[in-house]
Structures are given as structure tokens and as C-alpha cells.
Amino acid sequence: MNRVAAPWVRTRLRTAPGAACALALLVALTACLAAAFPRALDRYEDASLQHDLRHARPDRTGVLLTSAQPGLGSDAEQWQRDMRPGPLRERYDSTLGIVAGRLPVDRTQSAYGVRTTESIEVSEPWLPRPSGVNPQVHLAAQEGLGDHARLSAGRLPRTSGTPVDVDAGRVEAAVTTETARAMRIGVGAVVHVPRVASAPLAVHVTGILAPRDPDGAYWATQPVLRTPSLVKVPGPPGADTDKYWLGALLLAPDAGPALLGTTGSPVRYWQFAPDTGALRAHDLDRLNSAVAALESGPGLREVRSAVAPDTDVSTDLDEVFAAFDRLRSGIGPLVTVAAAGTGTVAGVVLLMAAGLAADRRRAELALLRARGASLRGLVGRLLAETAVVAVPAGALGLGAALLALPGARLVPAVAAAVAVTVVACAALPVRAAVAHRTVHVHGGRRDVASVRPSRRRTVAELTAVVLAVGAVETLRRRGAAGQADDLVSFAPVLVGVIAALVLVRVHPLPLRRLARPAGRLRGVVGHLALARAARTSVSAVLPLLALLTALTTAAFGGAVLTGVTDTRDRAALLTTGADARVEGTGPLPSALADRVRRTPGVDGLTGVSITYEARTSNGRQTLPVAGVDPAAYAKLAARTDLGAFDAGDLRQPEGEEVLRALASPAVAERFGDEPFLARMEDGTAVTLRISLVRDLTPAVFGDEFVVVDRAGLSAEVARPNVLLLTGDRVDAGALRRAAGDAGSVILRAQERARYVDSPLQSGAERLYAAAVAAGAGYAVLALLLSLLRAAPERAALLARLRTMGLTRSQGRRLLVLESLPQAVLAAAGGALTGWAAVRLLSPGIDVTAIALASASSPAGRTGLRTDPWSLGVPTVAVLVVAVGAAAVQAWWSGRRGSVTELRAGDSG
After folding, report:
1. For residue range 759-777, what is the model confidence (pLDDT) as tens digits?
2. Residues 169 and 277 in one domain
3. 750 in a domain, yes or no?
């Protein structure tokens, strides 16, 4: 028996092909799901990182190297030579190796050249002047113009045979189509650029270029080269200051030395665009280290050695990485909760499948041991028998996951599939080794009436409960301090372990007490069912653990998904103040309210006049003051649950000069209950006294606001500039047509959709829902396995009772009543455990990261609340499956003869 023989394996597989196929299917499905989870998470994280990089714009994600113009006394000739294409190209090649050695570089979008860092004012009379201020320009000689743009008119700029130097009086340039259109520059135009110590540099425009990829890094790293902008002249805050045009003239690549004589402080530069398609989220630590090395570490030292000692390296790539990492850190533990719960349930199901096989073959294995089979040889045969089925099935599941989810890391998926396969292979041999370590022929009864838990098991269970309770309490305290970590991933499992161990120990006691009065009733079915239910198998902890973990994870998942929905709804409501908002830059037309009120879906309308910068009595501080109709506004606040109040407390009494005000806590703390003066934007002043304090209000979102009865304001200030609309289905298109150009329209539903900004957010929700669904499926399978395990014994019992006169209907009631206490125990325990897990762990959980696109939430920190559907539906499903399986078994047993059932039961 020391050598594993192939005939044994073939014989066993031929004897029980159904069991082998069922094991293969279970292993393949579990391995596929286990391998798919890390790959799906990788894909969502990579997509989210690339999404963030795209939205960050190339001017933030690019790596820019600059070397400034030397000071007085430096070698001017050498500096001019360094600004020509040859030396620039040499340094580009050198620095490319340094940067590309740390970050993947998109060479097609990278560039180098010479440009001015300060804009230069030009005074050509034909250039546009919106406010009478002279326009300004940047000069740039960037390599690769012809490769990244096509000619819309004219030709590319070039230089004559003589190299351009600092004394050149004329150069050629091109402009983009946007610059030409906005600044009215055409082919043949001449722009005179002032210089420090000589006549202005004449820049002749020879061509107009249309960028091939306007949003690519070549053009977007320095957006002014592509698109001009209207720049405000610096002035006091809020003042209507003058504006001027700022654009760029694109010189020939070898005309860089001409920039030295200008007042624009020219620099040499090399810009490297990262290859965003090659950046992976799992490499984030290495990428952060690479960026830090380039900005202020060994990479910067190498760059300065290759270019010049004063070379500077700048990029905002590390800020983009940090923002993504904050989102991932907030979402990761929550997603892993579902994975840990589902993984635990799947592992329990694998162990239960092995236990079912071991129980059915208990007599066979005991006979082999009695005939001299060694424990090592027996375990080896069982391992080979299981591995022949499980290893190909695990490989098939892994292959399916790899094909279904390409483009992710291989190692985590392989490790997950291997772990599943190892558990499937080892479960039966280990179970058999424990059960048959000593030679015995008859195992005796296996219920709690005859097999009492040992002291060693009691100590182990108490230790597990203490550790689980300590872990949950640690999570609560860390969460309260804002430091929750991956411990949250196993929190529902820990709560399920506590509940399972406690319920398995406690539940026979009330059943035994109920069996005594049931024995006095007429008929034996009720008493017999309760008596048998009280003799639950000592191995019932595994199915109960599976059910409780699945139900707890489902309840926790439902609470998370509900919390996500509530957070988005609340944030959108805080932003809009109602279901829709129409806001103008000034007073809205008086007829607009009637047009908007007739819009389909609009149930109510509240007009508000908001002065955003009302000055307080000291004249140095401002705060928003909203003038409202107290009755209509009170109804709106009550409906939206944003600072509900009694309209009479805000309404202004006749003859009273001091206006009653509703204020935020910050304003109330600043001014107290004493009257204070507020000067409105039209110059009028009102005296206010705070009579109500609310944290929120529909009209204004923020920490500071004041709401007053607009009857006490001047006619000009009281004119509404905001309309707050309520209605379940506001027609967005009709509302915008009704508003026209009078004001901007913001809908709560559209604002809510804006919060789902990252693929990682939507992906995390899908992963969570899929994991919870998979856990529920495994829980049902665990329940069926536990019923299947007891099926032979129950069938034999029914057959014996039928020989003593038990009818078929009584047999059905017996099996249903026998299974009902355990089903009710699992269902009620699961619902209670799920509720307790949500309540216990809510202080340590914040769903803001998964709910909102930005780190700052208008709704603040959001915890969890129990979801009745996620508690009730799985509970009912457990009861239905348990009772239905018992009824089906009773019906099937009734179709077979008593002799057949007795033989089947005796052989089981």
C-alpha cells in the first residue's frame, strides 16, 4: 500500500463518475472565479489610472527638463551653439535614456527646442485688443513641426543658408489655425518683437498649421503653442479688469538663437510624454520612486550631468499618482470584503464536498485500514484519486479566466487557482487521515447526543471567538481614528465565525426544551422532528459557517451598495438644493418662472435671490445671503431634508426693522444673537439677527450662509436669480429650452451621474455585486451539500417508519419540520449577524471613496446603514431552499420501496 497504483484511481473514477464530474465542475468554477477576481481588479485599476492620466492633461503628466539662459559674463557663443538643433538633439538622446530607464516614454509625442518663458508685448496696430491692451506672444522653436501638423495655408518656416544668431533681424514663423483665427494673423503678416539692446525682431508668418493631434502631448504640454487665450490684467478681486490676447509664434527649429536678444527669458527644454498605455497600477510604488528620483534624486543628478548643472526637472505626475492611490486605498479594502467572504464560503464548500465524500466512503476506508492498509498509503491513493480530477479542472478554470480577462497580471491569478486546486486535492485525504488515524470498524453515532465536544475543542473555539471579537473592536477603533486598513476585509468573516461557533453550541438547548411539551401532543411527527433536530451532527459548524458568512457578506455588501447610492444622492442634492436648479448671473426675467413651472415633470418651484458677497459690519468679511419666501422655502427644506424649519420663525413681522435670519453654525458662532449689519451688492444695508441655526439649507451649500425673508430686502436685491425646482421626472431638454440663455440649468440626476468618474468606482461596484452573488450561490450549494449528506440516513429513517405505519404525508411533514429549525436558525442567525456586522463595523467604514469621484465629498463622511432587501431576500431564500429540498427528498423517497430505502440507508 506504500506505492500509489494507477488501477486504483481508474477503478474509483469508473465506480463513481458522477461524483468525479461534480468535483471537477466545482473545482473548475471555483478556480475560474478565484483567478478572475485579481485579473478583473487589475483591469479596473489600470483603466482608472489611465483615465486619470488622460484627464490630468499632458501639461501635468509630462516630464519637462529646462535649462535657463546663462547670466552676464558667460560664453555667449557657446550658449548660441547649445541652442541649435544638433546640440539639442544630443542632449535629448542622453536624457531620453535617463527618463526612459525609469518611466515608459512615448517618443512620438516627446519633443525639444527653445522657447521664451515670459510673454512679450507686441504693438502691431492690426492685432485685436478687446480692452485696448496690447497683445503678448511667446516665441518657440520646437523640433518636429512638420511631423505633427499639416499646412492649412502657406509653408513651414525655415532659415536661410546662414545660421541664425542673436543678431538676426528677421526670422520666419508659423501659427496654428486657432491662433490665426483668434488673433487675426494671416500668411505674410509681420510681427515686430521687442529686443533688449537692438531693433525689434521681425517675425514673418509664412504658414498656418493645423495640429494632427491637438490633444497629444506634443501640443498640449505647452497649450499656448496651440491655443491662444484671453488673459486678465491683474487687479482687485471681483473687479472687471481688462483683458489681452496671449498667443505663440512657432519659429523654425534652427532659429533658437534669435530668442536670446528678446525680453522673454528664453530656455532650452526637453519634454517627455509618458506612455500611458504602458503604466500599470500594480507598479505604482516603483513609478512614484522613479518620479521622485527624477525630481530630486539620482535621476536629477544624472540629468544635470548630461545637460547642465542648472537643469530643472518638473512634473505633476506624482500628484496624479497620489490622487489615484487615495482612491484605490479607499476602495480596495471594501472590495476585498466581498472577496474574503466569498472566498471563505467557497473554501467551506470545498471542505464540505470532501466531507461528504469521506462520510460516504467511511465504511470502505475503515475496512481497508482494518485489513492492514497504512495511513500513508491510504492518503496517497486518495490524493492521487482527487488530483487526477482536480488538477485538470483547476487548469481549465484558470484558462477560462485568462481568456475572459486578458491584459492583466498572471501571477496572482495562477496563485489563486493553485490555492483552490490544492485545497480541493488535500481536503479528502486530510479528512480521511484524521478520521481513520486509528483502526476501527464501527464509528458509532455522530450527533451531539453521543459525541460531546472535547475540552480541547472548547478552548480552541473560545480562543477563536476572543480573537475575532478583538479584531472587530480593533477595526472599530482604527476606523474611528480614520486609520482603517485591510483588517476590514475579514471583518464579516470574523463576525460569521463568532456567530457560527455560538449558534452551534447553543441551538440544541431550546429544541430539546420544545421537544418535551411537543411529546404531549397528539401524533409523533412534531415530537420526533424536534428530537431529531436537537441531535444535529457535530460537523454542522461548516455549513452553518458557510451560510452565516454568505448572509453576512450579502448584508454587508448590500449596506455598502446602499451607502454608495445614498452618498451620491445626498451629494447631488446638496449641490443642486433640489431636483433641478436654474441660476442666472443676474436677476432672472419675471416671465421665466411661469415658463419653467409649466415644464413637464416640475411639481414645485421656489424662487431665491442670493447675494453671494454681502459685506458684514466690519466691511472686511463677506457671506452669502439668500432672500426667500418663508412659506415656500420651508416646504422645500422639509421635502429635501435640508435644514427644515417653521416658516413662522423666519417671516418678518410688520413694523420690525431687524430681519430674522436662519444661519449656519459658523455664522451663528461669529455673530451670536446680537444684531449685525449686512451691506448688499446694490449698496443697501439691512440689519440681521440670527433666530434659527441649521447645518444645511437648499439655496446655498457651504459652511457659511444666511437666509432671510426677502420682504425685508430692497426691490432690486429681492428679485430671484435662482429657481429651485422639485419633481420626480423633470424633463431636462424641455427645462433647458424654457430657460434659454437666461440662466444655467443643473439637474440633480445629471449631477449624481457626474460622481461616477473613475472606472475603478464602477468596477468596484460590479465586482462587489458579482462577489456577493457568487457567495450566495456557494451558500445555497453548502446548504444542499449538508442536506445531501444527511439524505441516506433520512431516507432509511422514513423507510423504517413506514414499516411501522407512517404515511407519506406524515413523512413529508417530518422531513420538513426536521429541517425547518436548522433553516430558521441559519436564516435568523444570518440576518442577525449581517445586521450586527453592519452596526459594529460602520464606524470603521467610509464609502465616500467608492461613491464619489473626488476626495472631497459635499455629503461629508458616509458610513453604512442596513439594507432591508439584502437582509430579507437571502434569509427567505435559505428557508425556501431548505424546506424545498426536504420536501423533494420526501417526495422522491415516497416513490421508492421501503426495502430499497433500507438497503440504501444501511449501505450509507
Report:
1. 888 888 888 888 878 887 8
2. yes
3. no
Cα–Cα dist 787/777, whole Å: 15
Count Cβ neighbours within 10 Å for each residue of 646-674 and write b for 16 or more, e otherwise: ebeebbbeeeeeebbbbbbeebbeebeee
User: Per the structure block, which three cell numbers stand in for 359?
Assistant: 462520510
The verdict on 519 and 631 lying in the same domain is: no
Q: How far apart are CA 808 and CA 655, in angstroms?
A: 88
Report the distance separating Cα 11 and Cα 18, nearest Å. 13
| Summary count for the chain: helices (H), strands (E) | 30, 21
> Cα separation of 417 and 105, whole Å?
35
- If pLDDT is split at 50, 70 and 90, which confidence band does 906 have? very low
Amino acid identity, residue 408? A
DSSP string, 229-297: EEEEPP-STT----EEEEEEEEE-GGGGGGGGGBSS-EEEEEEEEE-GGG--GGGHHHHHHHHHHHHHS
Grid coordinates of 557: 455588501
- Regarding whether 296 and 150 lie in a shared domain, the answer is yes
Longest dimension (CA), the chain: 122
Look at 814 and 6; give whichever has higher pLDDT: 814
Complete DSSP assignment for 623-642: EEEEEE-HHHHHHHHHHHTS
Q: Which domain holds residue 157?
A: 63-314
807-814, long-range: CB < 8 A, 24+ apart:
808/890, 808/894, 810/523, 810/525, 811/890, 811/893, 811/894, 812/887, 812/890, 812/891, 812/894, 813/525, 813/529, 814/525, 814/528, 814/529, 814/890
Three-state secondary structure call for residue 823: helix
Alpha-carbon gap, residue 534 to 447, rounded angstroms: 9
Cell of 635: 416646504
Measured CA to CA, the distance from residue 487 to residue 710 in angstroms comes to: 53
Q: What are the grid coordinates assigned to 170, written together?
A: 528677421
897 in any annotated domain: yes
Task: Indicate the DSSP class of residue 212.
Answer: S
Cβ atoms 388, 13 nearer than 8 A: yes
The whole-angstrom separation of Cα 318 and Cα 300 is 15
Strands 63-68, 190-193: pairing is unpaired
The residue from 695, 715, 742 where one domain ends is 742
Number of domains the chain is built from: 4
Q: How far is CA 819 from the centre of its chain?
A: 41
How far is it, in rounded angstroms, from Cα 906 to Cα 792? Answer: 8
What the block records as the C-alpha cell of 762 is 464602477
Is 107 in the same domain as 149?
yes
Residue type, 24: A
Q: Does residue 245 sit in the same domain as residue 101?
A: yes
Q: Are strands 243-251 and 170-176 parallel, antiparallel or unpaired?
A: antiparallel
Q: Are residues 283 and 378 located together in one domain of the fold?
A: no
Long-range contacts of 295-299 (CB under 8 A, 24+ apart): 299/98, 299/99, 299/102
CB 137 within 8 A of CB 191: yes
390 and 492 in a common domain: no
Last residue of a domain, one of 742, 776, 811: 742
Is 625 part of a structural domain of the chain? yes
Q: What is the Cα Rg of the chain in Å? A: 38
Show the DSSP H helices in 507-586 as ranges: 508-518, 525-533, 541-576
Model pLDDT, residue 516: 64
Chain segment 439-493, per-residue pLDDT in tens: 765 555 555 444 566 677 777 778 877 877 777 777 666 654 344 455 666 777 7
The answer for residues whose C-beta is within 8 angstroms of residue 530's C-beta and 6 or more apart is 511, 512, 514, 515, 518, 817, 821
The reply to whether 430 falls in a domain is yes
Same domain, yes or no: 265 and 212: yes
Q: What pLDDT does 303 receive?
A: 92
User: What's the whole-number mean pLDDT along residues 330-343?
Assistant: 81
Give the pLDDT band (50/70/90) at residue 72. very low
